[in-house]
Amino acid sequence: MGSAPTSPSTFDLQPATDLKWDEHGLITAVVQDAQTAQVLMVAWMNAEALRLTLATGETHFWSRSRSELWHKGATSGNTQRVTGVWVDCDGDTLLVQVEPAGPACHTGAVSCFFRRLDEPWSE
Amino acid sequence: MGSAPTSPSTFDLQPATDLKWDEHGLITAVVQDAQTAQVLMVAWMNAEALRLTLATGETHFWSRSRSELWHKGATSGNTQRVTGVWVDCDGDTLLVQVEPAGPACHTGAVSCFFRRLDEPWSE
C-alpha cells in the first residue's frame, strides 16, 4: 500500500471488472502460451490466487485436491510469467497468457493436453 | 448401431478414456480455433453433449443457465466443426479444436475473451 511497483510484470486489477465466482468461490483459468498460443493447462483460482497472480506476475492457483494455494513452479521451477489476463463475456472464466519457464504438466509434457480423446473414423 | 459413418468429421470415443465429471456431471471444455490457435470460449459438456459432439462433428454443450443441451450455432448459424478433442492429464478438462463458421461469442466477437482484466503498471 503506497509501495512502488517492483516489476514491470506486475498488474493492477481493473476496478470495474465483474467476475463471477462459482459456489466454491473459484473461477476457471485457461493458461495459454503467449508465444506459441498452445493451451497449456486449465486450473482454478480463488480471489487470493488471482490477487497474487496479478501482484507477482506469476500464476497462482487454488488446488481443489489439496485445498491450498499453489504457486505454479514453486517446487518444480516451472513458473509461468504472466503477460496478459482476459475475462470472457459472462465473467466466469479467465484466459491467462504466459511465458512458461518449463513444462506446464507434472508429467513433464509441455501441455497437460497430450492425449487425444477422439479418433477420426477411417472411411 | 451398424449404420455407416456419414461424415469424415465424425469420431469414435476411445474406449479406454477415463474422464472425470464434476458433481453436476459436467466437464469443462476449452474451445480453440484450429487454424489461429485463438481460445474462443469455455463451456461445459455432460456425457450426452460430448457424445453428440463426437457423433456429429459439431460442438454441443450443456447450458448451465438454461439447464439444456445446446448445439452451438443451431440458431445463430455459427457452428463449430470439430477437428480434434484432447483431454488433460487428470481427465477433468477437454480441449476442443474447431473450425468455426462464425464468431464464437453471442456479442458477435470472434472470441468470448475480448476484455483484458489486467493492466500493466506504467513505471
What does this structure look like?
The structure is a homodimer. Chain A is mainly beta and about 120 residues long. Chain A has a domain at about 25-100: Ubiquitin-like (UB roll) (Roll), CATH 3.10.20. Helix content of chain A is about 10%, strand content about 35%. The first copy, chain A, is built from one helix and nine strands. Chain A has one helix at about 45-55, and strands at about 10-15, 25-35, 40-45, 60-65, 70, 80-85, 95-100, 115, 120. In chain A, the strands form two sheets. Chain A has a four-stranded mixed sheet, with helices on one face. Chain A has a two-stranded antiparallel ribbon with strand order 4-5. In chain A, a hairpin with a 5-residue loop joins β2 and β3 (about 40-45). Chains A and B meet through β1, β2, β3, β6 and β7 of A and β1, β2, β3, β6 and β7 of B. β8 of chain A pairs antiparallel with β6 (about 80-85) of chain B.
